[in-house]
Each structure stands twice: as structure tokens, then as C-alpha cells.
Amino acid sequence: MTCFDILIVGINMWALKEIEIGLYSAISIYIINKVIEIIAEGINFTKMIFIVSDKYEEIAIEISEKLGRGSTAISAIRYV
Hints:
The chain is an all-alpha fold. It contains three helices and no strands.
């Protein structure tokens, strides 16, 4: 879609010899595409932390009670 828009703006700039209109069009296409991307994907800022500990149950309870967030325990085996 963006490539098609850029092609149309390029042809318009070439045919009408109006660079200023083409630049404004390119800026508006960029802004519109960013807005569509934000709407489609949502504003979702996530952070992930890996905590390596033998006391994972206690840590999970604290995270749940104090932060109100969920946690996931991943079982792993250490090979040396």
C-alpha cells in the first residue's frame, strides 16, 4: 500500500512539477501509515525480566501481591 502511494506521489511530482506538494504528500503518507500501524498493532509496551533463583515460588508471590502482575516459572536444567 505504501509503495503504491509513493508511486502515485512520484508520478504526480513528475507530471505537475510541484515538488512542494509531493513533499507534503509524502509527509502525510508517512504520518497516516504510522497511525494505521499504531491502531492495528496497539500501543503495547511490555517489559520482560528473567529472574534465576531457587526461590521462584516466593518471588512469584511477591510479584503478584506487590505489583499485581503475573509470572511464569520456566523449568531448566543446568549442564556444566
